[in-house]
Write a structure and sequence with these properties.
The chain has 401 residues and is an alpha+beta fold. Helices cover 46% and strands 19% of the residues. The strands form two sheets. The protein has a five-stranded mixed beta sheet with strand order 5-6-7-9-8, covered by helices on one side.
Length: 401
């Protein structure tokens, strides 16, 4: 997964550089230019949040808000894109207050300066994570992006020789990596020992070191090394979906199933982007309070099939048609088939949301999915039943087919 994260950073940097150049050279801010800018920002927002780049995700959301406001502020948008590029390269990046103020002057609902997050990226034990400072949490993010192993070790030191043993063990840990945080541990109190817990980041697994020093490994995280590890991608998306749901007060179970198969980096990137958009969409639109989302990846002779199914409210075709009429996408007199009505959800800037959230409301998510799938030569089908749920099925050909 770490290789995939690096790929995201590399390709996003290139995409944002191209976007910046295109906006600078554009003779007019046409609808096509605006839609492409929305698509790039929306994809960066969701992917950055998934990989723990919270400041980048918030900034991308604010730039979407600026774009949606139709404000005549091209220089501010270009400055924001430059900052977005910077936010993906600096571990401690924060949205500059000066830029936030300028943004707020144009779009009062934007200008979200950096704030603390309760997001636990890799399920570190809650009693440990809750005690970490913001800087320690940033160090964890940096370690993850650097492909480090993270571990929580617990060890007891004899009271009579406590200071010397503690110093010696810290030196051992520091020679293998970095101690991110230290906490008192109670496990050894009955043995007359003084217990400590250490959260560490190391280049290699720490199991042997723990065994040699009579320490217990309470928790550990090992980076995924394979760039085509679809299982790691699905775990990442499922974790992100659950976190987003919890943030909005929803309880969503997310199940994944996949055939064992290898994917090229380009195929894996597309699968990640498509499934991420669809899961975020299901959490926001389909599930009211409690529900389930099933993600399936199935390989076939000449391609692979993806599906995201939920047991939520289903798509209300009457609501879809009414919104399309309101947006002048169709006339009230048009007699659309059920399929044609549902397909309106893929129209650029189409959304049934009355309010914009950090997930949706601008009509970009499903537009971006359709754009990416068709650009790759694939097809997307929607099956829905009001009150019972919706399934998005996507077929994507293998590269070279």
């Amino acid at each position: 997964m770490e290789d995939f994260r690096r790929q995201f950073l590399s390709e996003t940097a290139e995409t944002l550089a191209d976007l910046h150049q295109n906006l600078q050279s554009a003779k007019s801010f046409s609808g096509a230019v605006k839609r492409e800018t929305f698509r790039v920002l929306h994809t960066v927002k969701g992917t950055a949040q998934t990989f723990g780049f919270d400041a980048a995700s918030r900034l991308a959301h604010d730039l979407e808000t600026l774009l949606a406001a139709d404000a005549n502020a091209p220089d501010l948008l270009l400055e924001g894109i430059e900052l977005l590029q910077k936010s993906l390269t600096e571990e401690t990046f924060q949205i500059p207050e000066q830029f936030a103020q300028k943004l707020h002057a144009v779009v009062p609902n934007a200008a979200q300066t950096a704030h603390d997050t309760d997001n636990n990226p890799i399920n570190i034990p809650g009693e440990i994570y809750s005690q970490l400072s913001n800087q320690e949490r940033k160090t964890i993010g940096a370690a993850m992006r650097g492909g480090k192993h993270l571990s929580v070790l617990e060890i007891g030191f004899a009271a009579a020789n406590f200071a010397a043993e503690l110093i010696n063990f810290r030196e051992i840990l520091n020679s293998s990596g970095e101690i991110i945080a230290t906490f008192p541990g109670a496990k050894f109190s009955d043995d007359g020992k003084i217990g400590f817990q250490f959260l560490t980041a190391t280049s290699d697994a720490i199991k042997q070191l723990a065994e040699e020093n009579s320490a217990n490994v309470l928790w550990n995280y090992s980076p995924e090394k394979s760039a085509n590890d679809i299982n790691a991608v699905l775990r990442q998306i499922a974790r992100h979906g659950r976190e987003i749901a919890a943030k909005f007060g929803k309880q969503v179970a997310i199940e994944t199933q996949i055939d064992e198969a290898n994917f090229s980096p380009r195929e894996l990137k597309l699968v990640f982007e498509v499934l991420l958009h669809l899961v975020r969409n299901a959490v926001d639109h389909a599930i009211e309070r409690v529900g389930k989302i099933e993600i399936r990846v199935k390989t076939e002779a000449n391609g692979f099939r993806l599906s995201v199914a939920d047991d939520g409210r289903g798509i209300d075709s009457d609501k879809i048609k009414a919104k399309a009429i309101e947006k002048n996408l169709i006339s009230a007199a048009e007699n659309l088939t059920a399929t044609e009505t549902i397909d309106l959800i893929f129209q650029p800037e189409f959304s049934t949301k009355s309010e914009t959230t950090e997930i949706s409301g601008r009509g970009i998510g499903l537009d971006a999915v359709k754009f990416a799938v068709e650009k790759f030569g694939g097809k997307i089908i929607v099956k829905t039943e009001k009150g019972k749920g919706t399934t998005f099925e996507i077929f994507l050909p293998r590269e070279g087919n």
